[in-house]
Amino acid sequence: MAVKKPGGYRALKSVTVLLLVLVILSGALCALLRVTQYLARENDSLPTVLGRQYVVADNDNLTWLYRPDTLVVASPLEGSAAGLSQGSVVLYRAYDANQVFEGYSLSLVTGSVNEDGTLYWTVRGGRNQEDLTILPENVVGEVVFSSHWLGGLLAFWNSDLGLVCCGLIPLGVLILLWMALMIWRSHLRTLSRRPLPGYFQEEGGEPVLMDADPFEQEPFEQDPFRMPEPKPEPAVPSQNPSPFHYETVSADQQPTMVIPDLSARNTAKPAIGRDPLSDTQEFDVKELKEKLLTDKLLRDVDQEDYVKIPDSPKSDETALMSFGRDSVDFDFRHLDFSKLEVYPNEIGQGFTVLTPEYQAVVRLDITKREPRDQ
User: What are the Basic and acidic residues biased-composition ranges (predicted)?
Assistant: First the structure.
């Protein structure tokens, strides 16, 4: 069951996404400024973005025209620049007092003169300075837009301090926020993870041990946290079942065996006397199954095989042993089995049955059956 994310997590995630967008935009702008200016110096031209030339007018000689650090955007001029007129602000090639970029200056057109048949534009040289004359082919652009605050922002971004403040510091903060989000998200996933059987989640999300047994809850639909039990695979009988051999041995022919007392190990148990004329004992079939089902060889026995133990020459009692698909059943007649005890033999296969008066030992010898000739 998913846990609803708290409002603080969503707010932190929104701030992180917003900061990521700002870092990307800031980094892209810084890269754009530096790349365009580098290419302009390499090509002996002005920085150009989307077909427009731009410079930041930071020349103190132009304070009469623009405030320091003003962004100036110019449209390129081609040909003789005959469309210019008095009052136009232009960018032109020259190394003079109005220079705003390496090899390029900015000024105001004040008029034109004709000297020896050559047309010159006159531009203002600065405050309290004489006008300058320039050739029309040296004019590269006419200013179409200017902004003081954008120019100051670009100048800051283009500086080393701006790179640190607008790029590296936000990037470090973004990394810290991202790590906090990952830790918080991992914590929320831990709270929303499906609990194991025997556990449930309170409103706070903390796993608490249940007081009741989860396996006793019925029906299953009432307990959504209970894991379904795997279905047991049906036992497949072997195609080549193994034969078996059953041997009964009278109690007086068996060696003396020491049976440990499982209920009280520290208490000495008196030896049980054996009567050679005693009957073969009867015992609880359920306990026998628990003892014999641990033997893998018994699983190969055919389901419909039955063996009747021969009558004992010293007793008129009989016993019936039936082999099921995954069990062996014994039925000893006419005996009180309310106080019987069944123990596995220490050596070999089989079991020993104890009563207050008798002791009987049963041994099983099971071998593989040879494949039948087709």
Answer: 223-232
**What CA–CA distance (Å, rounded) separates 147 from 135?**
28
For the chain, which ranges sit under pLDDT 50? 1, 196-204, 206-212, 214-215, 217-221, 244-245, 264-265, 269-281, 296-318
Range 200-206 contact pairs with CB under 8 angstroms and sequence separation of 24 or more:
200/225, 201/1, 201/225, 205/3
- Report helix angle 169-192 to 7-43, nearest 10: 150
Distance CA(44)–CA(252), nearest Å, equals 120
- Confirm if 351 and 280 have CB atoms less than 8 A apart: no
Please give the pLDDT value at position 120: 85
Burial of 37 (0-12, 13-18, 19+ CB in 10 A): middle
**What confidence score (pLDDT) does residue 9 get?**
75
Domain ranges, ordered by start, for the chain: 54-145, 244-366
Triad 295, 299, 303: Cα angle to 5°: 140
DSSP secondary structure of 59-71: -GGGTTTS-SSEE
* CA distance readout (Å), 280 to 10, 59, 330, 344, 360: 79, 121, 11, 17, 6
3-state DSSP assignment of residue 240: coil
